[in-house]
Design a protein that fits this description.
The chain has about 700 residues and is of the alpha+beta class. It has four domains: about 160 residues, Glutaredoxin, CATH 3.40.30.10; about 325 residues, Glycosyltransferase (Alpha/alpha barrel), CATH 1.50.10.10; about 80 residues, no CATH class; about 90 residues, Glutaredoxin, CATH 3.40.30. The protein has 28 helices and 19 strands. The strands form six sheets. The protein has a five-stranded mixed β-sheet with strand order 1-3-2-4-5, with helices on both faces. The termini are far apart.
Length: about 700
């Protein structure tokens, strides 16, 4: 490693620190870099990436560690490195600019800016010389330097066009009749047409999980009883569960599959993917009863708790795609390795189950040796018949072998861990853990969710109740964004429903107040990505579309509607409705990017379902009713336990109690469940089976 150390050594971000020994004179984003650009009248070379990004590592090795290329960068530009996960505001603005310029985007993101921060050219990965149909990075640097020096008028025109385009992206025309079931129906049908009818997923390679899309199709399948909608979901979830994108030994999912078969993943593991996938698998389990989906969700939770949890309760961000500079090195196998670790009989069964053979199915680019990515083609029943074994014997052999292989894999060099803790991603994880706790009846998951929330309240909440974005090594930094506040408000509502702890409801109310005060567009509706008092940037985006995360606007609208229902708050409901109307045209035009919001619209039009169970929270009859309610798939379901005696004993309890809980009482000393839809509630029932039947209607 070079002895050279640049300014990034002082940063906390693991991604920025990865570049601290580059010969590039890197700055973090901030006043020092921007002032230097203005003072020297130099353009800014902005490089945005994240720690688990494979092609970010490639560009670093090829260009940023190359002394000649680094000297060229230092001579002509002020070079700024940004962690997209810490600064999604910058990433959003400049990714939008590059997508307008090139029609595509990705990371590493490479953007050339004026000293004022206005973009005039950009792209993603650039190789060190012309190849892959891309210009070499030195040639790009020379061209951009010459343009700034000799063709400033052309740069100004390019900048003006891009800035006008960025402004248009945040403008939406409200659609008066947007709140209509046909919008949801047409969106779901268009998405269904793009589903791969054989291999699952959307389109061809590469394939991403696209959780909001399949959550919407699952929701529609339950409402319409249309088998083709459900089949699109189950085909995808089964293919992913059996594919190489799923870590067959350690649980959890890699980022995406580079092929259409879900075999070869891009090997990084992201917290947000796993936090979204586990609840989707649980919902599919509730709809189908297929234990595969339950087991995949359980393994994903185990992975999160064992590999991604900080001792204080928060969750880390990601595990790298590369190990020792080689993509997937930790995860792939040679058949000889398995045969050395296991007896011949067990090895034969495991290799057949996980499709490991001498030929292999994967080779790192530039490597001749082929290894095997573990994936599954046979069901366990088929495997048992093939080897003429009892199914229980096969299960025991596979589990024993899996543990041996995982132990051996854990002894290998491991991918780097991005151990920063991000507020919004942790909020998504809380929601997943709560969902797992109530569906699987697992107190450990609920405890993990509560501990994570306590961590966010303690470590990432400011004195005025707002959130900070990122925490690492005891220090929190960066004002949080729309996503962070919206996701955590939603998570607190989930926690309140699952625990009955009024502190979570208080936190949700506070965060919703912040959303409507600091992020809402009072003139047009919807929510900006940054708060009113955020650092002044060249654009204040209003992000609508789902990406790797659900849209912050969609989750904010969903959360306002949920709290409006609990508190009977017409002002919140009106704010949410105004935002839905604002985004109506986009839902019609681009259902793929608005799948989460289409689900929110569907829930708004159908109305929520609240189950209120009156009785002592820990009593067996209450627990039986709670389990019955949570074992039925009902979109937009909220299950609340109301203890009238406990409420009466608390000071000012009636004023704080959500409207839907009031006047709900046990029946003749037995816990009673009330199913509330719209503005009316059913007669109370005391039988769990009857409650489940009512919810299925």
């Amino acid at each position: 490693m070079s002895a050279h150390v640049n300014r990034l050594a002082r940063e906390s971000s693991p991604y920025l620190r990865q570049h601290q020994h580059n010969p590039v004179d890197w700055y973090p984003w901030g006043d020092e870099a921007l002032a230097r650009a203005r003072q020297d009248d130099k353009p800014i070379l902005l490089s945005i990436g994240y720690s688990a990004c494979h092609w970010c590592h490639v560009m670093e090795r090829e260009s940023f560690e190359n002394p000649a290329i680094a000297a060229q960068m230092n001579e002509s530009f002020v070079c700024i490195k940004v962690d997209r996960e810490e600064r999604p505001d910058l990433d959003t603005i400049y990714m939008n600019a590059v997508q307008m310029l090139t029609g595509s985007g990705g990371w590493p993101l490479t953007v050339f800016l004026t000293p004022a921060g206005e973009p005039f050219y950009g792209g993603t990965y650039f190789p060190p010389e012309d190849r892959y149909g891309r210009p070499g990075f030195p040639r790009v640097l020379e061209t951009m330097s010459r343009a700034w020096r000799d063709s400033r008028d052309e740069v100004t025109r390019a900048t003006q066009q891009l800035m006008a385009g960025l402004d248009r992206l945040s403008r939406f025309d409200a659609k008066p009749n947007a709140l209509h079931p046909d919008t949801v129906a047409r969106g779901a049908e268009r998405l269904l047409q793009h589903c791969d009818p054989e291999l699952g997923g959307i389109g061809d390679a590469p394939k991403f999980p696209n959780v909001p899309v399949f959550a919407l199709l699952l929701r529609r399948s339950a409402a319409l009883r249309r088998p083709e909608l459900l089949e699109a979901v189950t085909r995808t979830l089964t293919a992913m569960a059996r594919g190489g994108i799923h870590d067959q030994l350690g649980g959890g999912f890699h980022r995406y599959s580079v092929d259409a078969q879900w075999l070869v993943p891009h090997f990084e593991k992201m917290l947000y993917d796993n936090a979204q996938l586990a609840p989707l698998y649980l919902d599919a389990f509730l709809v189908t009863g297929d234990p595969l989906y339950r087991d995949v969700a359980r393994a994903t939770f185990d992975y999160l708790l064992q590999e991604m949890r900080h001792p204080e309760g928060g969750f880390y961000s990601a595990q790298d795609a590369d190990t020792e500079g080689e993509e997937g090195k930790t995860y792939v196998w040679r058949i000889e390795e398995i045969r050395r670790l296991l007896d011949a009989d067990t090895a034969e069964i495991l290799c057949r189950y996980y499709q490991v053979d001498e030929a292999g199915n994967f080779a790192e680019p530039g490597h001749r040796e082929r290894k095997s990515i573990l994936h599954v083609k046979l069901t366990r029943d088929e495997l048992a018949r093939l080897f003429r074994r009892e199914r229980t014997d096969v299960d025991a052999i596979l589990e024993r072998g899996r543990r041996v292989l995982l132990e051996a894999r854990n002894a290998r060099p491991q991918p780097a861990l991005d151990d920063k803790i991000l507020a919004g991603w942790n909020a998504l994880t809380i929601r997943a853990l709560v969902r797992g706790a109530v569906v699987l009846d697992d107190a450990q998951l609920l405890d993990a969710a509560a501990r994570c929330a306590a961590f966010l309240d303690r470590a990432l909440t400011t004195a005025d109740g707002r959130l900070l974005r990122s925490w690492k090594d005891g220090a929190a930094r960066h004002p949080a964004y729309l996503d962070d506040h919206a996701f955590y408000a939603a998570a607190c509502l989930d926690l309140f429903a699952a625990t009955g702890d009024p502190r979570h409801l208080t936190t949700a109310r506070r965060l919703v107040d912040i959303l409507t005060r600091d992020f809402a567009d009072d003139e047009h509706g919807g929510f900006f990505f940054t708060a009113r008092d955020h650092e002044q940037l060249v654009d204040r985006p209003k992000v609508l579309f789902d990406g790797s995360l659900p849209s912050g606007n969609a989750v904010a609208i969903e959360t306002l509607l949920r709290l409006a229902d609990l508190d009977d708050d017409e002002a919140l409901r009106t704010t949410a409705e105004t935002a839905l109307r604002l985004f109506g045209s986009q839902m019609e035009k681009q259902p793929f990017g608005t799948a989460y919001l289409l689900g929110v619209l569907d829930g708004y039009l159908r109305g929520p379902t609240d189950v209120v169970i009156a009785g002592g929270r820990t009593s067996p009859d209450v627990r039986a009713l709670v389990r019955a309610a949570h074992h039925v798939y009902v979109p937009d379901l909220t299950v609340l336990v109301h203890d009238p005696e406990g409420t009466a004993a608390a000071p000012d309890a009636v004023a704080r109690t959500p409207r839907v809980l009031r006047d709900k009482l046990p029946i003749q000393g037995r816990a009673a469940a009330y199913v509330c839809r719209g503005f009316s509630c059913s007669a109370p029932v005391t039988d769990p089976a009857e409650l489940a039947r009512m919810l299925r209607e």
